[in-house]
Amino acid sequence: MDKAEVLDLLIEIKENYPQFDVSEENIDRHMKYLHDFPFEAARQNLQEHVRTGKWPPNIAEIRGNLGDQEARQREIDETQAYLRQREANRVKATLPPPGWKDGLLAKLRNS
């Protein structure tokens, strides 16, 4: 994340939490701890915090837990792939031939 992106985040925080400190020192501190973090992940974490948080987010809350987020996204992707495969299988599925069930039951009864 570059300084302009950090500033975008801090502006959004200030808009939602007017008491938030946007001093040069605080900007530098956020830059120090957010420079290696993806901007979009930070933005999503911030937006979620704004929806649920009463107080301004700290750096840890802006960073969130990226590992958990990535794992959750992988699970979502795998689930969607599974559901697409199920739908493809459903479309290809055919009913068994007439009398198949009765023939099978008769074989089982004669065993």
Query: What is the number of E strands?
Result: 0
| Number of helical segments with 4 or more residues | 6
Shape: rod-shaped
Radius of gyration: 27 Å
Biggest sheet statistics: none
> In sequence order, what are the helices and strands, one letter per element?
HHHHHH
Provide the residue-averaged pLDDT.
93
- Structural category: mainly alpha
- Separation of the first and last Cα atoms: 71 Å
How much strand? under 5%
Roughly how much helix do the residues carry, as a percent range?
A: over 70%
Poorly predicted runs: none
Describe this structure in words.
The protein has about 110 residues and is mainly alpha-helical. It has six helices and no strands. The protein has helices spanning about 5-15, 25-35, 40-50, 60-65, 65-90, 100-110. The longest helix has 27 residues, at about 65-90. The radius of gyration is 27 Å and the shape is rod-shaped.
